[in-house]
């Protein structure tokens, strides 16, 4: 891809990001930060390329360390987000909610 | 322009798909019901991006890579499982630092071995445009790393939350920032732009580490929600810059999403404090309060009450609005608070929760804690949705919040928090205020007028202990 196509994707994605993030409910801002954290570790793609390349040993090692760091983030970020999101629930099952509503 | 990475068409499509899945992951967060599916889209997107990259490289070096992923993944999973919800701000800061460091390492690896990234010509010289991207990506990554480490230390209590002010810090900071820009320009223009040549890139990285550190130390603990959001944004821009280097759409889309997300959250936080972004990041807020020492002298009458008094008032109320703040998190009082809420509801009291956008140490911090304690999220309201209801409430129950309820923000033009939107707890028939002691003002160092009003009752105790006693009395 040439630079202009890449730039176009970037600019469009900024707009998408702007509108999508404004639609996030404030109650979920902490999970939002955790999940953006996890997805920004897509930088692992670069780390994988460096790790797989033969030739320059130092670059390979840096790549592998980066893979490990990004993995902490990917697994940790998604897991902690899932843990948080599982806590957001309505309490319809409980009898007391019915009483309060009636 | 000139640089072409030989990525096959199927891989380009796969990266695009993963980028779209990341968008859906954020879209899902528009409501708690759709959020869990959203998170799974995010995981799928990541899986696609990783597998695509591995397959494209014909699984070269897969063994070492698998070990690295397993080690990192195990650490991540264990941490995610063990972390207490009150510690979420530090965890997020720590995770940001990892993204930053990964960006630095990838940048350095690309600099050492540009051929692997397809960003060098046949003579081994890195393309000019790639040099810009590479230098920017590593610099932003390094700032994210060291800034997040400081934010982590402040949030985790390894370092005092008080601002650390160096003399002439703005001059130093601008000097270093200018230095980084000059070095980047020199690198882009220099003849020595090949693989691992010269010391310009390592110097840029070193200076960026330093500036990240210097930028965050003068910022006080209570401004951390803005800092954490800002670093969130930086980690996104670092990923985007690396995405440009690799012409990778998944990285660019994600970087832009994360970058805008962090920027919007910073904006929301600043607005909720009525402060400009510049004033927050230039730091020093709240230092006067610490410098004054001992807090304001209390020489005015105020009413105090016991847990029994509070229980009596709560029981006989029709509508109660609970206002949690950082003090609730510190005291870990969310579970017993929910218990109190349940007991009141059983007695027919309408209990709701009101959350100020900057309550806690990161955006949405209070909501997560209440969700952890099993509070129904439909009973939890944001400032603008509930503020007009305080007038009809019989009791406003403030636990561990202070400045976000201070009416001086509306009336006192000289107050440092003037203009900040506050929760109108003073409009409730009675305000119950749980506070450790009458000394010590809020983070802004301002006395809260509310304490001395006739319809305010101060409950002076540890938040958790007081709520436990109220529960007993109910």
UniProtKB/TrEMBL annotation, chain A:
InterPro entries: NADP_transhyd_a_C
Record's keyword annotation contains NADP: yes
Alphabetical UniProt keywords: Cell inner membrane, Cell membrane, Membrane, NAD, NADP, Translocase, Transmembrane, Transmembrane helix
Domain of life: Bacteria
Localization, UniProt: Cell inner membrane
UniProt-listed Enzyme Commission number(s): 7.1.1.1
Cell inner membrane is among the record's keywords: yes
Residue ranges annotated for the NAD(P) transhydrogenase alpha subunit C-terminal domain, each copy included: 7-90
Residue ranges crossing the lipid bilayer per the database entry: 6-25, 32-55, 61-86
Catalytic reaction list: NAD(+) + NADPH + H(+)(in) = NADH + NADP(+) + H(+)(out)
Main subcellular location of this protein, as a coarse class: membrane
Membrane topology: Multi-pass membrane protein
Role: The transhydrogenation between NADH and NADP is coupled to respiration and ATP hydrolysis and functions as a proton pump across the membrane.
PANTHER family: NAD(P) TRANSHYDROGENASE (PTHR10160), PROTON-TRANSLOCATING NAD(P)(+) TRANSHYDROGENASE (PTHR10160:SF19)
Protein name: proton-translocating NAD(P)(+) transhydrogenase
Organism: Pacificimonas pallii
UniProtKB/TrEMBL annotation, chain B:
EC number: 7.1.1.1
UniProtKB keywords: Cell inner membrane, Cell membrane, Membrane, NAD, NADP, Translocase, Transmembrane, Transmembrane helix
Pfam families with a match to the protein in the record: PNTB
NADP transhydrogenase beta-like domain location: 13-472
Record's catalysed reaction(s): NAD(+) + NADPH + H(+)(in) = NADH + NADP(+) + H(+)(out)
Keyword Ribosomal protein found: no
Transmembrane segments: 12-29, 65-84, 91-112, 132-153, 174-194, 200-219, 250-270
Domain of life per record: Bacteria
Top EC class for this record: translocase
Family, as annotated: Belongs to the PNT beta subunit family.
Function recorded in the entry: The transhydrogenation between NADH and NADP is coupled to respiration and ATP hydrolysis and functions as a proton pump across the membrane.
Name of this protein: NAD(P) transhydrogenase subunit beta
Species of provenance: Pacificimonas pallii
């Amino acid at each position: 891809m040439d630079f202009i196509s890449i730039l176009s994707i970037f600019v469009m994605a900024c707009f998408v990001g702007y509108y999508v993030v404004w639609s996030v409910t404030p109650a979920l801002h902490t999970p939002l930060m955790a999940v953006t954290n996890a997805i920004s570790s897509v930088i692992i793609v670069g780390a994988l390329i460096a790790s797989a390349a033969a030739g320059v040993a130092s670059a390979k090692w840096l790549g592998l360390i980066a893979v490990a760091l990004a993995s902490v983030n990917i697994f940790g970020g998604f897991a902690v987000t899932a843990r948080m999101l599982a806590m957001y629930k309505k309490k319809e099952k409980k009898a007391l909610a019915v009483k309060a509503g009636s | 322009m000139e640089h072409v990475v030989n990525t096959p068409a199927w891989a380009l499509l796969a990266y695009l798909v993963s980028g779209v899945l990341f968008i859906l992951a954020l879209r899902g967060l528009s409501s708690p019901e759709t959020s869990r599916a959203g998170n799974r889209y995010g995981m799928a997107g990541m899986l696609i991006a990783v597998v695509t990259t591995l397959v494209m490289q014909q699984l070269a070096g897969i063994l070492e890579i698998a070990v690295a992923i397993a080690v990192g993944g195990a650490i991540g999973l264990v941490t995610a499982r063990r972390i207490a919800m009150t510690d979420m701000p530090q965890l997020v800061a720590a995770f940001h630092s990892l993204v930053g460091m990964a960006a630095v390492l990838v940048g350095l690896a690309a600099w050492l071995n540009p051929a692997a990234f397809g960003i060098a010509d046949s003579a081994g010289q890195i393309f000019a445009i790639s040099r810009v991207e590479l230098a920017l990506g590593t610099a932003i990554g390094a700032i994210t790393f060291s800034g997040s480490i400081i934010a982590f230390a402040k949030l985790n209590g390894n370092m005092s939350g008080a601002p650390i002010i160096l003399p002439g810090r703005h001059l130093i900071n601008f000097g270093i920032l200018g230095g980084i820009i000059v070095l980047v320009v020199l690198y882009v223009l220099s003849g020595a732009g090949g693989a691992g040549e010269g010391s310009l890139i390592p110097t840029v990285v070193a200076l960026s580490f330093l500036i990240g550190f210097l930028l965050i130390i003068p910022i006080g603990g209570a401004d951390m929600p803005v800092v954490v959001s800002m670093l969130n944004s930086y980690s996104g821009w670092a990923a985007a810059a690396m995405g440009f280097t690799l012409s990778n759409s998944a990285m660019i889309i994600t970087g832009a999403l994360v970058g805008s997300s962090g920027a919007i959250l910073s904006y929301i936080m600043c607005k909720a404090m009525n402060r400009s972004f510049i004033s927050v990041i230039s730091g020093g807020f709240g230092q006067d309060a610490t410098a004054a020492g001992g807090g304001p002298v209390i020489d005015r009458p105020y009413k105090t009450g016991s847990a029994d008094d509070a229980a009596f008032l709560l029981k006989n109320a029709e509508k109660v609005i609970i206002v949690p703040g950082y003090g609730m998190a510190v005291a870990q009082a969310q579970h017993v608070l929910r218990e109190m809420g349940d007991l009141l509801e059983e007695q027919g009291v309408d209990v709701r929760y009101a959350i100020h956008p900057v309550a806690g140490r990161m955006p949405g911090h209070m909501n997560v804690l209440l969700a952890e304690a099993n509070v129904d999220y439909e009973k939890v309201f944001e400032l603008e949705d509930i503020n007009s209801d305080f007038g009809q409430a019989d009791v406003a129950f403030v636990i561990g919040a202070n400045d976000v309820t201070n009416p001086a923000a509306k009336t006192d033009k000289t107050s440092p928090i003037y203009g900040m939107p506050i929760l109108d707890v003073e409009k409730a028939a009675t305000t119950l205020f749980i506070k450790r002691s009458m000394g010590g003002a809020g983070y802004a160092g301002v006395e809260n007028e509310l304490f001395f009003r006739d319809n305010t009752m101060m409950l002076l105790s540890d938040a958790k202990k007081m709520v436990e006693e109220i529960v007993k009395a109910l």
